[in-house]
Design goal:
By secondary structure, the protein is an alpha+beta fold. The protein has 2 domains: 184 residues, 2-Layer Sandwich (Beta-Lactamase); 215 residues, Hypothetical protein af1432 (Orthogonal Bundle), CATH 1.10.3210. It is built from 16 helices and 7 strands. Strands 1, 2, 3, 4, 5, 6 and 7 form a 7-stranded antiparallel beta sheet that branches. Strand 1 and strand 2 form a beta hairpin. Helix 1 runs antiparallel to helix 2 and helix 11 runs antiparallel to helix 12. It is elongated.
Length: 418
């Protein structure tokens, strides 16, 4: 490879690094880091892991070969699981040693290596992992946030080749800036988590897991809707980054509702109490009144509009009411309902994710519906409460929604057993 080509390659990496710093959500950033790292060295597949205490969790997996065998618009099956950090696994060794691992053939490791390659996923999918490159994502303090693992580098003919010295140079250079972007995203993420925790203190029913599920479901709905509509890539990336965070803020306004109403189980809320509860939409929007960035504007829109109804029925709220005149604790006055695309897209998406999650999980006032019944209810409300195009996208990704829900349930059971 000529020095000019190397210079051009490094310049392209520098340009991508500046775009990474614009991403605010940690999960969106992790996914993008994996995507761009693979592009840099023409890798067919890869995974990205994050450190969670003494465990490593796989956050994202990508595989172009598997993707080509799926229907257009589909993603490879959702995976999310954790395992103890140990030198016996390649990713675990990467964390504990802090070293880069470059493997020519995962199936033929030398016996002096402390780690081994787990062939289980290959056997289940029919894939063949050959070359592999793992690099720890280490911040300035020395703390390792996770591991970037890319698989099966390819030449121009599409044949699998080892990761050579140039590939190693490019990925190491890219990883330095990727970690800087991760540190920035972690700061934003921690701020949002603090606000989520505050909301959970006020309303135990709105758990951290509920908020995280709603956020994850919302991204999947948007991705499929955007694919159906051929939304340009850059526009998708910006919107989904904001949406991942904004969805987590949808019920922040409940901190302004008094306990006697917020935590009431029996008897049911009176009509006036329900109007006070509805005010949480305006209270949440007030948090973002002075919105300047597109993220803050979307947070405001989602908090304010996620209970509007697509067909403009009076069931939706707060409607055409000036939320800046709302006083926390007051009953929400009746106003002309919004309808259709008057309701911001992000709010229409979060509305579906929020209702689906509320239906399919236990609340103090109701038992959990089955997932199938919950899907059927969302379909039933298409065109009335929900945007029909978004419902269509939601049903198209049904298997993925189920997989995400199952991964959260598995985590909860694991936490109960610890």
């Amino acid at each position: 490879m000529s020095s000019i080509t190397k210079e051009q390659k490094l310049q392209g990496i520098i340009e991508m690094e500046s775009k990474l710093n614009e991403i605010q959500d940690l999960d969106i950033l992790l996914e993008r880091i994996l995507t761009e790292a693979r592009k840099i060295v023409h890798a067919d597949a890869g995974s990205i892991y994050v450190v969670e205490g003494t465990n490593l969790r796989i956050k994202y997996a990508q595989n172009d070969t598997q993707l080509k065998s799926l229907p257009e618009g589909s993603k490879i099956p959702y995976v999310s699981f954790s395992f103890p950090i140990s030198k016996k696994s390649i990713a675990g060794y990467c964390v504990l040693s802090g070293e880069v691992v470059n493997i020519t053939d995962a199936y033929n490791l030398s016996e002096d290596k402390p780690f081994s390659f787990n062939k289980t996923n290959d056997e289940e999918t029919g894939y063949r992992t050959t070359s592999m490159f793992c690099i720890p994502l280490k911040i300035a303090s020395g703390k390792i946030l996770g591991v970037l693992q890319i698989i099966n580098a390819q030449n121009e003919a599409g044949n699998v080749i080892p990761f050579d010295s140039d590939a190693e140079l490019y990925i190491k250079h890219f990883a330095v800036s990727a970690v800087q972007a991760l540190e920035h995203a972690c700061i934003i993420g921690n701020m949002i988590k603090s606000l989520q925790l505050m909301a959970q203190f006020r309303d135990p029913k709105e758990t951290f897991k509920h908020v995280e599920r709603v956020s994850s479901f919302s991204i999947e709905i948007y991705d499929r809707w955007a694919m159906n509509r051929n939304v340009p890539f850059f526009e998708q990336q910006k919107f989904r980054d904001n949406l991942k965070i904004a969805a987590k803020c949808h019920d922040f306004g409940k901190v302004a509702v008094q306990d006697s109403i917020l935590k009431k189980v029996k008897p049911r809320l009176t009509s006036e109490e329900r109007d006070v509860m509805k005010g949480h939409t305006c209270a949440g929007a007030l948090v973002f009144t002075d919105a300047e960035s597109s993220l803050e504007q979307m947070c405001r829109d989602v908090a304010l509009r996620h209970h509007e109804w697509w067909n403009g029925q009076d069931c939706g709220y707060p409607g055409d009411f000036d939320y800046t005149k709302y006083v926390p604790g007051m009953a929400l006055p009746h106003a002309k309902p919004l309808a259709g695309e008057e309701i911001p897209l992000a709010a229409r998406i979060v509305s579906i994710a929020d209702v689906f999650d509320a239906l399919s999980h236990k609340r103090a006032y109701k038992g959990a519906w089955s997932l199938e019944d919950s899907f059927m209810e969302i379909e039933k409300l298409s065109g009335t409460q929900f945007d029909p195009e978004l419902v269509k996208a939601f049903i198209q990704i049904k298997d993925r929604i189920v997989a995400i829900n199952s991964s959260f349930e598995a985590d909860e059971k694991s936490e109960e057993n610890d």
